[in-house]
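Annotators were shown the component list below and the corresponding predicted structure, then asked to write short factual statements about the assembly.
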Amino acid sequence: MKYVLTLITAFIVVFVKAQLKTIELGKVSKEELTMTTYDKDLEAEAVVLYDKGESYFFDTDTGFEIRFSRINRTKILTKAGVKFAEVSIPYYVDGYGQTEKVVSIEAYSYNFENGNLIKKALDNATIYEEKINERWMSKKFVFPNVKEGSIIEYKYELETPFQYNLPDWNFQSTIPTVYSEYVVNMIPFYEYQYIVQGTKEFTYNNSESAVGKDRYIAGSKYRDMVNTYVMESVPAFRDESFITSKDDYIIKIDFQLAKVKRLTGAVIEIITNWKELNERLLKHDNFGKYIQKSEKYAKALFETTLNIEGKTEDEKAKLIIEYVKSAYSWDGYQGKFASKKFKEFTTQKTGNTGNINLFLIGLLKAASVNAEPVILSTRNHGKVSAPFLKMFNYVIPLIKTEKQSFYADASEPLLAYNRTPIKCLNDKALQIKKGEVEWYDLYLNEVSLENNSINITIDPNNNTAKTTLSIQETEYDAYLDKRKFGNDSTKVKKYFLSKGFQDIDKTRIVNYTKNHRPFIIAVDGTVELEKIDGKLIVSPFLKLPLSENLLKQKTRTYPIDFIYKTNTAYSTTVNFPANYNVLTVPDDFKMANELAEIEIKYEVLDTKIQVTGNYNFKKAIYNPNDYKKLKFYMNTIVRKFNEQIVLEEIVK
Amino acid sequence: MTLKLLVTIIWATLFSIHLYAQYNAVVTDYSTSIKYNGYELIEEHSQTIQINNKRSSWIADVNIAYGGDEKIEIIEAVILNTNGVVMRKLKKKEITTRSNISYGSFYEDGMIKEFSLKWNTYPYQIKYTYQRTTNQFLYVAHWDPILYYNIPTRTASLRVDLPNDYEVAIDDPKIFTKNIELLENNTVMTWKTKEHKLMKVEKFSPPTGELLPTVKIIPKQFTYGVSGLTYSWANYGNWVSQLNEGLDVLTFSEIIIIDELIKGISDKKEIIKTLYYYMQDNTRYINVAIDVGGLKSYPASYVCKNKYGDCKALTNYMKSMLKHAGIDSYSIDIVAGDNPKRIKAEYPSQQFNHVILAVPLENDTIWLENTSSYTPYNYLGTFTQNRKALLVNGKKSQLINTPKLSLEESKEESTYLFTLDVVGNGELQLSQTFLGDEFDNHKYRYKELQKEELKEYLVKKIPYKNIELNDWKYHQPNRDTPSIDLEMNITLKDQIRNIGGSLVINPVPLTIQSVSSSSKRVSPIRINYPVYKEDSIVYSLPFSNNYTIKTPENVEIKTKYGLYFVKHSINGDKIEVKRSFQLFSGEYPVDEFPTFSAFFEGIRASQKQSHIILKPNQ
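Structure shown to annotators:
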């Protein structure tokens, strides 16, 4: 990567100088003031005209700190864009006396009124400090005098004593950006790795030594290395449905501290590769050592509470996972590290995902089950692309028994012992084990099944039908409905009253806590029928099927991520009275290919109609090229699964 | 006697098991003790909650909110087993603090203390006690026995200890067992209640806040920013006036602008309108609440400089501009919302959450809502119409009523022009005019949403499926008219069903809130503002001469609560359906609920018979 960087520099340097833009704080052009739309995106509610960040290392008596300064100029184009006049600058406090500081904020608004430029400065008394939590604070302000057409401009400086927090830079946001530049002045004492996402090349990219600006420390001379990254005309990132996370796609550059070089010549390797990341975690108090503590703790546990004697590996794994799930509860925080000290966790019986799953790994190891931690990034946290520790935010065990190999997560009691929550299904996980670097696929191959069995008995006198419905679900379909309904029959009742039932006599929830069995919801009640011109209209699948296409965009540039494979089946018997005739039944339908399968069949018997339908999406993630087909299939499902049967009374 | 007692205890035990086993959690005791020592108000809250299963363990994540000017101390926080044995004590360092900024607010100085009392074997109990101290307050007590809406309370009590020479007004509902103990220097009052069941949320009923049994104790003399009295609304209003005194100074540069704006205008209404437009076009709502900021306004100069403020600041700014123009106006403290908690007129005190402005003219009063850029001049929508409010005017302050939205002012009118072919593909031209509540909804979105978001909203609002919205246009005839027109051009598919050879058209019923005919209705009926929907649906069917058209029966339902009618007519190849629904504002006792819900049932029944059938000619 470094080679590439220097190479580009060699031939760009000459003409690039002209491309770099600078603005002077407080000087806006007439064009900027009078523009009413952004010609490259006519619907934009606001546009970032200029955004520049710069990081610089400065020395203090306690060592180097980083000063990050930023200038941002944004044009508000419509009323909807006025919200960008509210600014929040978060900063980190480590809890041990060290803190980042926002040392200065300057902000101005500009308006063009009656031919005059009206400039208003932010009153420093209106900058507020919010305490977001114990670690994060935020400086907040609102620009004065902002309306449609205003330009807002601010500059701030943030100082951080944490070299591992060298600020990252986003070139893209939810509104378009005309010009975005980030300059990092590196010093020879810290080495960083960086990764670029969302673009193959910058509009301009340069790295050069700060000639003529020699610096000295303890008698030795050094120079800054000035790294510049520029993107121009960056489109707005507008949210799309069925993607993993916005963070996976926006254009940005992230930095991670790799080496610290002391003046003495000693080099401290922070992280250079996956292998070292592994080793560091294994030595970490709140990771590897935490697992070791759990292993020791397990010995006593196996003697008193949890009897694992005589069990196979698979049985032991299951027993231990179920034990942790029932005895410990999740405090709602995620993390790859344990957040609470070991003793605290075992007395309080609650902790973050790190606490729970690292503890689980310790117990498994103590029971001689082959279990190793794997770390991953959850779906809303983006994909992992480089050995940056901060790219991971979650830890789970990978367990290999004589029968199977699987992941587990003891923080989620509603899932089977060998399943992880949906948020974990994001690309791949890194195994943390001495000496080896191994990646494991996180997607689950298993298909989630949903079977709907419906029995409809028509009562022509009341234009209703006695209806029994039973929905059986497995895997994530079951999990999502468990979370939706809880174990709460009133919620079930309320839901099905909106799905075609006019009355519900009975509801049943089965296997709410038995995670390894299908989750069943059963409902008995009365469904209202349409009577048109003396004919009875029956929806064989009630109002249960998809009623509109979820894929709404015309085209698609990102993969369509359904997360897991699904198969949905319906089987209905419609019983009708002998004095009725079947006037029309919809046509049968069948299609199948490598992407999806759709089938529906009608069979008319003496006084009943048998309807079976089934559709399945064969992949969890589809290529953007398949979008059109997928959209068409979904349309077909919506149409075919909502078709109706018409019955007519036999006139004697 | 002994036997009887024993029986009672057993019965009570059985009863409570029976009563609470079904719940995920129960507040077993909630007691509050409040003492005023002459300079500080000390409140101590102690609650014991039984958590029966993992699903309700969220209750063990405790958060306690407190104001920027209040002191808070957590005295005790423990986990108990069912025998009352302490399993764990919370340590001080486990308590964290964060800002408490409510939704819609930019900044507030209130904070939240948080800690977790989770345990792993069920059931278990958590108990925590905290003390809140303040020397600035408007209520000695504002207390109800319900900690969580969805969790029942077994026993709750309030104990208030006040000096004998401290004068208060007490508003306490009868459901409490009350006890008063008169001591030498102080009086101790207690209110107790048992077995408090869950509150039900019902449609067309007073808001929950009004239905909660609440003990309110109001000091007759108080200091909050400045000192005040609550013997009368004039007293209380005078305090509001004094708190906000001297905040009406405009900046010099603002005065120049204002003078320029109203130069040459002599008509008072025109001046008010000009200044109101100026404020609407140049300011916006941002709430920053610090210190007594909940009640005291920012000075007018703050809005002059920043061009933003909360309802108080913007109203004070508008008032100051009018004052500069020589026009008197008055702040109106009000409870905002489309179903507001009503003012208790007999207890003068701080009961408001919003402020607007009234400008009395010779034969007329102009009402100004100052927090939105799109509210028409002299218009109060469902947010502030028809309720008691306080006109703030020093010692002449008094309760007044805000004007009522009439039926005609709440009308929502739609015209659907369908042109369809025999399978139901074609076009729809939809023209709508919104007043009242829907005016507010549309005007807000029209102004505030990004184009794509607006399109998404409009598509959701169109009651037909298989549609494509091609084009739309909003039009407001005049910024002073509280009405907005919307024109939409829509392409549709599959709007006609073929049932056994006949064609069936289903006009989507008018959306009318459903009222279930439940026999267990608890609260009275309250309709705060009228609803009026009228539409005309015209189907243009060029192929229709091959068919015999059968329309459903016309419908007409007239009740004291409202009206509903549907009429059909056929004219050449056009079928027209005209529909109208009116619901009047009003209040009815709970025993009228069956006839009230029968009105809605009748509409629902008739809506089921709304198919238009086209039979092929032989």
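Statements collected:
1. Chain B touches chain A at residues 54-55, 57, 61, 88, 96-99, 101, 106-107, 111, 116, 118-120, 281-282, 284, 286, 288, 305-308, 373, 447-453, 465, 497, 499-500, 502, 504, 550, 608, 611, 613, 615 (CB under 8 Å).
2. DSSP finds ten helices and 39 strands in chain B.
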